[in-house]
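Aim 2 progress. For Peptidase C39 family protein, the working sequence is reproduced below.
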Amino acid sequence: MIEITLGSALIYYFASHALDIKKKPADAVYYTEVLDPRNNSLSRYHREEVRIKPALENQFRGIVRQAYDYSCGSAALTTLLNGYVGTKLTEQQTMEGLLRFGEYDRIVQRRSFSLLDMKRFVTALGYESGGFKGEFSDLIKQQQPVIVPISYAGFKHFVVYKAYKDGRVYVADPALGNISFDQERFKKIWENNTLFLINVPEEQRKDLLALQDADMRHVDDATIHRYALVDAQFSTDYINKLADKASTMRKVIDRDPNSNTYGQPITSFMRLYYKR
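Predicted structure tokens for this construct:
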């Protein structure tokens, strides 16, 4: 019995040290593609590691998320200060600064911060800032992120305007993340056409709030209304139905000599098989 136990231990030791097993990253999945999806074959010709991350991480990219129901002002200001000015503040530090340099009694009374409170705190940090009223054209001419008040879903709210492109306004919302509005919709919810900007030397400006490709992945309302309740049609075979639903379509030349479309381009399903 002792010999068997000792032998097993030695085999495990040499096997574990002989094989160089790399630790798989926690955010990695692996997929393979079937050689020909039209045939029942397990032949594989491609395997690749794909890194994934939670959608919420990208949704709040560059944004300081508000910690309290009525702290959108402090979160929006912290987002602007960190993402454009280059500070490294937490929302709690910004709130303490707003309470210290702002109108303390009025802040407590209304349970929120004003643009005047923001201006006083930003001045204490050594930067020029101010609140202004203007037209939509004035907003997009700024070419810099600014805080704008909006009236949305029955609430008054502060967000950070990021950019305007192709009829859409992109904002950093401390409650909802990186979102966008149709231009006309934004004009309706923009409260009093007010904006708050901070003057920062060009060499100091940060681009954490710059528009990225991920921000522009939106679906217009007309498409949602048209296709929201449409059921996609798949093969009656259950397995193929699931596989086709998760596959990518591509054009290939039909190489099956018994097929009616032999030698012609046909639509084929590239099925991906995921494995952790």
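The first strand starts at residue 28 and ends at 34. This observation will guide construct design in the next reporting period.
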